[in-house]
């Protein structure tokens, strides 16, 4: 489906979004994160995903600046995502949160800004602010994270601009078939956080068997499965060899049978909070 790490999906507004990016959840501010971003960009990554609540936007920005300086790439060649946190939702609050994220990152704009969680009663005002940021040309695309079908349906009843992306927990034990189908039918790009189930799937016997048959790692098999389902993936790693390994998923293809076997592993099992039952 995709030939190199530079291949992109086209969002419904025409913006190009890389199929593979680097996630930085639970990576603290500091030199390790700066070096991880430099390593990722060196290995061909062009997409970096962070969030206000991760508390690491300053180091992400530093890593981006250093990577651009050493690579000769321009800012426009990168795709940077951040997210508005639950405590900062609301119309004015979201506009302020966006400015705060840009200031920490040291960037003039984001490529993608997401509502991090579907907080009841705050979604519509927050989305109006996102629409303003988009209309004002301050962000290239807007979307949501952790939205179920019913959250999307409710949002789209009042939204003037539909979300371009929905970033959700997605991995072989949580295959989100209904959400995938809904997203596809509405032109919303699905994106996987924790695609490797925070490392919990790396010893899975069926996945190991498929990996051995292809001469690949389990992580590479899972990321390839994401891509063949048309799902953008943002695996997290700070280790250069893992960052490189995760990028090497464009030189092979899973068979129909491989895909069927992996789909059949679904248990509707989450490692993160339930979007219908969280308290933050």
From TrEMBL:
SUPFAM superfamilies: NAD(P)-linked oxidoreductase. PROSITE patterns: ALDOKETO_REDUCTASE_1, ALDOKETO_REDUCTASE_2, ALDOKETO_REDUCTASE_3. Gene3D superfamilies: NADP-dependent oxidoreductase domain. Keywords: NADP, Oxidoreductase. The keyword Oxidoreductase applies. Signal peptide: none annotated. It comes from Paenibacillus xanthanilyticus. InterPro entries: AKR, AKR5G, Aldo/ket_reductase_CS, NAD(P)_OxRdtase_dom_sf, NADP_OxRdtase_dom. It comes from the Bacteria. Belongs to the aldo/keto reductase family. PANTHER family: 2,5-DIKETO-D-GLUCONIC ACID REDUCTASE, NADP-DEPENDENT OXIDOREDUCTASE DOMAIN-CONTAINING PROTEIN. The keyword NADP applies. This is Aldo/keto reductase. Residues 21-267 form the NADP-dependent oxidoreductase domain.
